[in-house]
Amino acid sequence: MNYFSFHRNIQLRLALQFFTTLASSAVIPFLAIFFSNEVGEFATGLMYIGVILSGITGALLGGRRADQRGR
């Protein structure tokens, strides 16, 4: 099974996910450095923890809702 055997929509989704992850991986480390210089290390840590916790909470609540109502 290779990339070109997938349906065109799946190929597009995989390519976009790859480029989104690549861009995110290139920007996020420098964003942490920027924020630590602008607002301080402690506030930057709190912001990152907030983003992580909101992502976990959203995934759990969204998954539960999808199971209850259907996708």
General description of the model:
- It is a single chain.
- This protein is mostly helical and 71 residues long.
- It has helices at 8-39, 41-69.
Which descriptors would you attach to this protein?
single chain; 71 residues; mainly alpha; 2 helices; 0% strand; flat
Q: Sheet with the most strands?
A: none
Instruction: List low-pLDDT spans.
Output: none
Q: Treating each run of at least 4 consecutive H or I residues as one helix, how many helices?
A: 2
Q: Share of helix among residues?
A: over 70%
Global morphology? flat
Give me the strand/helix succession. HH
Radius of gyration: 18 Å
**How many structural units, i.e. domains?**
1
Number of strands: 0
Fold blueprint:
Layout: H1 8-39, H2 41-69
Helix pairs in contact: 1-2
Compact summary:
The protein is an all-alpha fold and 71 residues long.
